[in-house]
Amino acid sequence: MEDVPAGCVHVAAGRRTAVALEAYADDARAMLARGSLYEAASSDRAARPLQGRGIAYAIALPVSGTPAVVRHNRHGGLFAPVTRDLFLPPTRAPYELRSAMRLAELGVPTPPVLMYGVAPAGVAFRRADVVTREVENARDLSAYMSPAVSGAEREAAWDATRDLLAAMHAVGVRHHDLNVKNVLLAPAAGRLLAYVLDVDRVEFGRAADMRLYAANVARLLRSARKWRDERGATFDERELAPLVAA
Predict the structure, then answer these.
(1) Which of 138, 192, 202, 221 lies 20 to 30 Å (CA to CA) from residue 122?
(2) Is 188 exposed, middle or buried (0-12, 13-18, 19+ CB in 10 A)?
(3) Domain boundaries along the sequence of the chain
(4) 74 CA to centre of own chain
């Protein structure tokens, strides 16, 4: 059994286990009693499906009522059809929990990880689910690149994204899959605030390292241009200039 960060506890039900923040241990127990965390969410009649790399579910946790998003971990990339949702233990989920906690300490906005669950998948592999707190009234960056969105709204989204990149740069955070679906934007104090998602793909390096900033920007802009070229997203290259200039 792996060590867990301070403030977290182990929860078990049969061969399924979860690690949860102490405040959400009863939620984890209630969900594991119905299967995996993901199975419990998918069977919730009030769940709202969210499309991403596979379907995630927005639910109210069964005991605390906390709004949360439950997703099943899946591989991306070239070998995804082969590796699918199978991970070698301990999976990426423990790293995602620790990364989210560290990002919060460093002042980089990311939705808190409330718990994760792991279940055996044969002898050597595991499947994992991650539960994060839902950011209400949020849309990802790709939604702000729709032709239906005004130029002013899109400018506000890029401004918030630039602030997020600056916060990551200040503490030396590199995200290896920073794309337009992994930047979440929500209203906060009369403006938009950007959150970074899928933080199992981040690593921590030297603060204010311009190479890390350049890598983050290059990865994000590659995703934005691909979204424009393949999905008809709308933006002007001049809108990207402040990201590059920074």
Answers:
(1) 202
(2) middle
(3) 8-133, 139-245
(4) 12
> How deeply is 198 buried, as exposed, middle or buried, from its count of CB atoms within 10 A (0-12, 13-18, 19+)?
buried
| Distance set, CA 56 to CA 22, 227, 240 (Å) | 23, 21, 30
* pTM as predicted: 0.93
Nearest-angstrom CA–CA distance, 163 and 161: 5
pLDDT in tens, 31-63: 999 999 999 999 999 999 998 778 999 999 999
Mind listing the pLDDT tens digit for each residue in 111-131?
Answer: 999 999 999 998 899 999 999
Residue whose C-alpha is closest to residue 36's, from 58, 52, 57, 17: 17
For the segment 81-105, what is each residue's pLDDT rounded down to a tens digit? 778 899 999 999 999 999 999 999 9
pLDDT at 57: 97
Q: What is the pLDDT of residue 81?
A: 74
**Distance from chain centroid for Cα 26:** 23
Distance CA 13, CA 23 (A): 18
CA-to-CA distance for 114 and 110, rounded, in angstroms? 12
Q: Which residues contact 125 (CB under 8 A, 6 or more apart)?
A: 86, 87, 88, 89
Instruction: Give 139-245's CATH code, choosing from 1.10.510.10, 1.10.10.920, 2.40.10.340, 3.40.50.300.
Output: 1.10.510.10
Residue 83 pLDDT = 80
